[in-house]
Amino acid sequence: MSPESAWYDDAAGPVVRPYALTGGRTHYAAEFDMVALIVALAHPADLAGQHSGTPGAAAAQWAPDPEHEMILELCRTPLSVVEIASELELPLGVVRVLLGDLLDRSLIEVRRPAPVAQFPSERVLKEVIDGIRAL
Amino acid sequence: MESVRSDPGPQAGDSALTVKILVAGGFGVGKTTLVSAVSEIRPLRTEEALTEKSIGVDDTSAVQNKTTTTVAMDFGRITLPNGLVLFVFGTPGQDRFWFMWDELAKGALGAVVLVDTRRLADCFPSVDYFERRGVPFIIGVNRFDGAGQHTPDQVRDALDLSPDIPVVDCDVRDRESAKQVLITLVEHIMRTMSGRGALTH
Question: What is this structure's pTM?
Answer without folding.
Answer: 0.78
